Amino acid sequence: MKVDVLLGLQWGDEGKGKIVDVITPNYDIIARFQGGPNAGHTLEFEGIKHVLHTIPSGIFREGVINLIGNGVVIDPVVFQKEMEKLKPFGFDIRARLVISKKAHLILPTHRLLDAASETAKGKNKIGSTLKGIGPTYMDKTGRNGLRVGDIFSPNFKEKYDALVEKHLGILKHHEGFTYDLSELEGPWMEGIELLRGLIAVDSEHYLNEALKSGKRVLAEGAQGTMLDIDFGTYPFVTSSNTVTAGTCTGLGIAPQKIGKVIGIFKAYCTRVGSGPFPTELLDEVGDSIRKEGNEFGSTTGRPRRCGWVDLPQLKYAIMINGVTELSMMKADVLGNFDTIRVCTHYLINGEKTDRFPYDITDVELVPVYEDLRGWKADLTGLSSYDDAPDALKEYVSFLEAQLEVPISVVSVGPDRKQTLTNE
Ligand code: GDP
Ligand code: IMO
Ligand code: MG
User: Fold this and answer.
1) Nearest-CA residue for atom 21 of ligand 1
2) What's 417's DSSP letter?
């Protein structure tokens, strides 16, 4: 068996959580491969809305294992809160969850370092979610990190103290940055206790054995391609590989074992935090998309920046990820527009190109748009793609022709049921 991959093609919040939940019945294991509590994946069904940060989005489906891979970073405090929020649903969460021993831990001091670093950057700040993601991955690559496997070691506390000592040394250089670590440590240690009671596995063996025995695995990405540490709009990115290749390193899956790659994108585009965004709309059109799409961060509540869909950007993401099929989300949000704009090219120094440029942060870039007619309809009640307005079908066909990948799912609302398949 091969591992299918589902990931975001824009700057995150494309609707990954919703689609993972919708297709989970086709799988035995859902595995997160990178990121951490900077992610907020929203699921809606039966009138319930749920936001997941670390736990994979297959958790609500019976008989499915949810695996947190080695590429993920875990904050025990956020994790404990997430577990508690799932309690009222009445299922045995522990029986559905396994965690890699190699996943790294976010310490309270990682969060402090994140905040201190952003403060020091001033107007150049990344706009981090302040969950400690950057400092934790820095300790991972710097070979100082603590992993889930360490919590079972008799000298765990010593290891923890040594790393905290190091962090406090760095924090001393951030003049004027104040904090109370003792307040943060109690809940953190409680979270560690909770983690000790869960199933920790050698997830690379677990997954490869599962594949051998015929189990179907879906890898769930967090963030989006344009936030990838290598291929995103650096330095305004996150600290992990959010692209398909991240599945190999974040789960221990060999490249030839990758199957379908499902790329998720919105019918428009959003970004939260700082950094370049070629098609951003700083006018009332952008405001209207934000309002209609309820574009406020699932993790931080910050307003998301909104703009038209950007084909050079999507083509780039499709190339890097090897996307085999697309899901277009939030088509319902564009239901009020006479005209919908699609950026097909950029004008850079007077030259027309559909290549996403290296120096996007510095270069003067003018998006070139093609105008398509809007569908001017409420799509939220649709149950079949056949019944969709012609103008929506034209929009989908136009994007498919430009992107050269089929759009197999069109989403018309946040609920599980508001999902149309386009065969
Ligand atoms: P993720 O991080 O990629 O999982 O996406 P988020 O959950 O952060 O953000 C997507 C938001 O859009 C959530 O509030 C979803 O409930 C919502 N959503 C997903 N699909 C649709 C859709 O087709 N239409 C509308 N109106 N909302 C959607
Ligand atoms: P999901 O999985 C949208 C953004 C932050 C910031 C940058 C770096 O829900 O799509 P970090 O906390 O990682 O140091 O922040 O990345 N960011 C996201 N934006 N969705 C996310 O996750 C994000 N995770 C991080 O806003 O600009
Ligand atoms: Mg999100």
Assistant:
1) 414
2) T
355 φ/ψ angles, rounded to the nearest 5 degrees: -100, 130
pLDDT digits (tens, 9 = 90+) for 16-29: 999 999 999 999 99
Per-residue buried b or exposed e for 23-37, using 16+ beta carbons within 10 Å of the residue's own CB: bbeebbbbbbbbbbb
Nearest alpha carbon to residue 299 among 318, 273, 319: 273
Residue 298 beta carbon below 6 angstroms from any ligand 1 atom: yes
Question: Is pLDDT of 297 > 90?
Answer: no
- Would you place residue 400 in the very low, low, confident or very high pLDDT band (cuts 50, 70, 90)? very high
Strand partners, 54: none
CB contact set of 178 (below 8 Å; sequence gap of 6+): none
* Beta-bridge partners for 218: 4, 30
The DSSP annotation for 231-291 comes to TSSTTSS-SS--STHHHHHHHT--GGGEEEEEEEEESSEEE-SSS--TTB--SHHHHHHHH
Determine whether the shortest distance from the Cβ of 415 to ligand 1 is under 6 A.
Answer: no
Q: Tokens at residue 219, please?
A: 């890898």
Ligand 1 atom with least separation from CA of 8 = 3
From ligand 2's centre to the CA of 280, what distance in Å? 17
**Relative to the CA of 49, which ligand 1 atom is closest?**
16
Ligand 2 atom with the smallest distance to the CA of 221 is 2
- Name the residues annotated as catalytic: 13, 41
For residues 340 and 391, give the distance between their C-alpha atoms in angstroms, rounded to a whole number. Answer: 10
SS3 content of the chain, % helix, strand, coil (to 5): 35, 25, 40
Q: Which is nearest to 325 in space by CA: 263, 399, 266, 385?
A: 263
- 333 touches ligand 1 (CB under 6 Å): yes
Q: Say whether pTM exceeds 0.85.
A: yes
